[in-house]
Amino acid sequence: MDHVNSAPEEQSGLPRHCKVLVVGGGISGICLGVQLRKQNIDDFIILEKSLDAGGTWLNNTYPGCGCDVPSLLYSFSFKSNVAWTRKYAPQPEILQYFRDCIDHFSVTDHFRFGVSVASARWDDTLKQWLITTDSGETISCDYFVSAVGQLSRPSVPTIEGLDLFDGSLFHSAQWPREFKPQGLNIGVVGNGASAIQIVPELAKSASSVKIFQRSPNWILPRHDHRYGVGWKFLNRYMPFCARIQRLFMYLAFEMRILFYNRRTFLNKAFTGWTRYRMRRKAPSQLTHELIPSFPAGCKRVLLSNNYLESLHRPNVELITERIDKFTASGVKTKSRSVSLDAIVMATGFETHRFLYPIEVTGKEGSSLTQRWKQRPQTYLGMLVPDFPNFCMLYGPNTNLGHNSVIFMVECQVNYLMQLIKLTEASKADCFEVTPEATTDFDNRLQQQLGKKVWNGYAKNWYTNEQGYITNNWCRSTLAYMWQTRRVKKSALRFSSRPCTKTADATPNVC
Questions:
Q1: Would you say residue 6 has pLDDT above 90?
Q2: Does some domain include residue 300?
Q3: How far is CA 294 from CA 214, 272, 399, 402, in A?
């Protein structure tokens, strides 16, 4: 593809132009970077606002941080790891794995750290994207890829007096390295996936831990264990053993999507089984507060071997009253004041404002933010009409509640690589999904989502304020792999930039 503006000069380490520009240096950005390198496409950069790669595994460093998907599954298919120490690896190991992937596939030099993107605008004359950073620098690119994901912006609820508290107050994804919990009275606001990992660790050394719970969650054992010398030996010298384990794990997790169909025997059985397991672990006097009344799977099912057990400790207290306001010395609920030395806001992320705060503008000034005011509508969770040469990885309706999201990311990256090849093979400069293909995909998506247990029972982070499920994929990962296995030309339009003539009447450059 010929570039209208391909000047090689650099501005503060940033090129003026590149073929592929990726925003986000987490799992999705790393995966795409590796595949671009493997396809000998070296003209790309990955812009990352943090000072290192790793995304959520770089930002989340709270005590007990880990993944609720087994490490053999929560890894790339093209880069196995025999160094896992546990079935469910802790955060430092996961981060190191992704750093090793970057080094192994020589992607490091393509990263630009400490760079935040303010806006991205499509120029229909140049058939290029113009990316503007927060510092005011502009980069043009042929293909613009968002790899910012869904869990990158911490969410803190608006509660009266939040700025009045005199102690330490921070979000779980912004854990201060210098924070020492020993002997402190600590409040944990929230009881989701992060909180259930944090609380047992804090309870070991804090004077007291107060958990402020808004609504209960379904919790199952994580069945974690340390890998022994024999396992590591087999996987190092007979790697097919690890691949077989990974396959069986994948199939076992894939079957769990069947439990998430609403008003079915399998969902009712799953709910009953989970209730039974929780009753065995939870303090008997707290079962009413801890065990949900809605079906299992309505909110993400959490995995923990020690959260329910930690509630038996004398220094841990569950508080289910709503927080009315923060005070200088702690928090106030309807019936009591709670004195605290530190508060951890384990309140999740802004999951419905995709790509925020980047302002993305497509053809004829079309704003992605305005178009998605009610809910996002995409093709495969990746492409949007009127936004040529733009692709999202781990975008709307591609999150999972039952399997590894890395599988979904690899499917998307494979599709995008095919799409770039097809565009160039067609002698075109840009691709664009048709409105008809997008509407057809969205209609089928909404029909399938209507059958899921995520609908209507309780508030969850998958559903936006208008009641639409905007985050989760509606079927199995195998179904998504099948839909992204190849590019359907009928769903796309291809076009080229207008031909221009040079002053010396050389042939047209298109």
A1: no
A2: yes
A3: 14, 11, 21, 18
